[in-house]
Amino acid sequence: MNFETTQTDTKSYEIRQMSDAGKCLSAATVEAPSGEAAAKQLKNVVDGTDRIEICLDGKAVNEMGVSYWRKRVKR
């Protein structure tokens, strides 16, 4: 059997680093096939970051705490 490989479509996700007061400390736009793949592109967190929001079209589609990101996503 022959299988054709198709390139996965990517979307523009915004990664927001949020403080516990709800202030956006840092924001970056990345191209990724999924929200999880977008989160994996984040290399470091800004001091004071409480949670990370992955947004698509201005709406949060995924949210995680910094400790979860460090243990499960950043590899």
Topology overview:
Layout: E1 11-18, E2 24-32, H1 35-40, E3 51-56, E4 59-65, H2 66-73
Antiparallel strand pairs: 1-2, 1-3, 3-4
Question: Could you describe the 3D structure shown?
Answer:
The chain is an alpha+beta fold. The chain contains two helices and four strands. The chain has helices at residues 35-40, 66-73, and strands spanning 11-18, 24-32, 51-56, 59-65. It has a four-stranded antiparallel beta sheet with strand order 2-1-3-4. The longest helix is centred in the C-terminal third of the chain and has 8 residues, at 66-73. It starts with 10 loop residues before the first strand and ends with a helix. The relative contact order is 0.23.
**Tell me, what's the shape?**
globular
Number of helical elements = 2
Span from first to last CA? 34 Å
Structural class: alpha+beta
Tell me the fraction of residues in β-strands, as a range.
35-45%
Q: What share of residues is helical?
A: 10-25%
What integer value in Å does the Rg equal?
14 Å
Count of DSSP E strands? 4
Biggest sheet architecture: 4 strands, antiparallel
- Let me know the average pLDDT: 89
Strand ordering within the main sheet: 2-1-3-4
